């Protein structure tokens, strides 16, 4: 089968004229011997026989350009042989090729009309020949059927090609649609990243601009003020670089709209309210001042609460959850506790206190990475009597390691 497919592909790669000449040669190779010999009791090959053969073969050269006229010419030659008294099995081969071409290069309507006319003519010739010879080519009904065979084969081949072309066109359209969808998602992701980075570092860049202006104004008259302003520019620049690096680390959450601002502690009431609507009665308690926090720390706290409440809804079976956010000097403590059934992680005596480090499933790993990106840590563990607790400790201001892009 592989060899045959290779031959077919090689034949399709030939120029159309070369292919047509090869078809004519093959038809002549099979038809000429049949035309040369005949039953001794009937008409032997003569000049008319060879003339009809030459006309048939010559007409096949233009079968692609004028399929219907070629079918008429070859059909007339075949009828001429029969009426001339030359009986043969392969003398209808030229008209078979012509009828196949009519169907494969045309449409269904033309195939039907060609089949009707060819069947009627073939039947009429068979009736006429049957009156004059004792051994006619065949019964009229059979002679009416054979022209339909090449037409049916051509119709099948043409329909299959149309289906293959349609499948190929659908595949191209599907690929184009996938590319458009990928481009749209890339565009949305770029918008989301741009918004998140803008919200995090815009205030720092603005402060640096103001401080640079102060340093420039005081450069000649008050050098000390200028130096202090430049130190602040340097520190702000380090902080901005650290926040950029940390943001790239955590820009893997696709839950929020790409154009939404970076969430922080101010959005926690809305977040807790959404989970309350999901069937878990959630409450939020916020202790201590919320100002002066690094935007990256606020983002990490928000995402940790979001992931912890998601785990409560999906896995714990709890009916109540409490979220606590408290600031103690230079640390921000975030705690999420639920009242779900006792955890299977281990007996409470083994893990509380202290809590077990967050090395569990993907949700806990994500919370750990978010906390580590800003220099904090996450611990978790079951609560005596049932429930589960997640506790995160985050720095109020990004440490020097995070500002340099290192891991604490």
Could you explain the architecture of this structure?
The protein has helices at 2-12, 16-36, 47-60, 67-84, 93-104, 108-132, 140-145, 148-217, 223-250, 268-276, 295-316, 348-351, 362-373, 400-403, and strands at 281-287, 320-328, 331-338, 356-357, 377-382, 388-395. With 408 residues, it is of the alpha+beta class. The chain has a 6-stranded mixed beta sheet with strand order 1-2-3-6-5-4, with helices on one face. Strand 2 and strand 3 form a beta hairpin. It is elongated, with a radius of gyration of 44 Å. The protein starts with a helix and ends in a 5-residue tail after the last helix. Mean pLDDT is 75; it is low at 132-137, 254-259, 344-361 and 401-408.
Give the helix/strand class: alpha+beta
End-to-end Cα distance, whole Å, is 65 Å
How big is the Rg?
44 Å
Helicity range:
55-70%
SSE ordering: HHHHHHHHHHEHEEHEHEEH
Number of helical runs? 14
Lateral arrangement of strands in the main beta sheet = 1-2-3-6-5-4
Largest sheet: 6 strands, mixed
Report the mean per-residue pLDDT as an integer.
75
């Amino acid at each position: 089968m592989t060899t045959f497919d290779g031959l077919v592909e090689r034949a399709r790669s030939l120029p159309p004229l070369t292919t047509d000449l090869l078809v004519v040669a093959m038809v002549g190779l099979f038809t000429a011997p049949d035309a040369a010999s005949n039953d001794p009791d009937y008409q032997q090959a003569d000049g008319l026989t060879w003339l009809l053969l030459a006309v048939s073969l010559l007409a096949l050269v233009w079968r692609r350009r004028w399929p219907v006229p070629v079918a008429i010419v070859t059909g007339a030659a075949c009828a001429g042989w029969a009426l001339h008294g030359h009986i043969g099995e392969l003398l209808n081969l030229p008209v078979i090729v012509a009828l196949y071409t009519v169907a494969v290069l045309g449409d269904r309507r033309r195939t039907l009309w060609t089949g009707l006319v060819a069947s009627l003519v073939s039947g009429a010739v068979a009736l006429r020949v049957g009156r004059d010879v004792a051994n006619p080519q065949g019964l009229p009904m059979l002679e009416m059927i054979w022209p339909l065979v090449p037409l049916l084969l051509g119709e099948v081949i043409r329909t299959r090609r149309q289906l293959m072309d349609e499948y190929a066109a659908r595949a191209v359209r599907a690929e184009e649609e996938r590319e458009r969808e990928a481009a749209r998602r890339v565009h949305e992701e770029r918008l989301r990243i741009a918004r998140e980075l803008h919200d995090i570092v815009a205030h720092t860049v603005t402060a640096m601009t103001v401080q640079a202006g102060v340093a420039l104004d005081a450069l000649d008259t008050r050098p000390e003020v200028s130096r202090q302003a430049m130190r602040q520019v340097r520190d702000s620049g380090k902080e901005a670089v650290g926040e950029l690096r940390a943001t790239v680390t955590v820009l893997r959450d696709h839950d929020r709209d790409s154009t939404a601002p970076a969430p922080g502690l101010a959005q926690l009431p809305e977040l807790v309210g959404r989970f309350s609507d999901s069937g878990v009665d959630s409450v939020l308690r916020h202790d201590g001042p919320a100002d002066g926090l690094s935007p990256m720390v606020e983002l990490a706290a928000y995402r940790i609460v979001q992931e912890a409440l998601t785990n409560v809804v999906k896995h714990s079976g709890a009916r109540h959850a409490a979220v606590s956010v408290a600031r103690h000097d230079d640390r921000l403590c975030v705690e999420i506790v639920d009242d779900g059934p006792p955890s299977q992680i281990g007996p409470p005596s083994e893990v509380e206190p202290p809590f077990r480090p967050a090395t569990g499933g993907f949700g806990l790993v994500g919370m750990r990475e978010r906390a580590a990106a800003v220099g904090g840590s996450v611990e978790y563990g079951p609560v005596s009597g049932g429930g589960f607790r997640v506790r995160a400790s985050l720095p109020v201001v990004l440490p020097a390691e995070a500002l340099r892009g290192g891991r604490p």
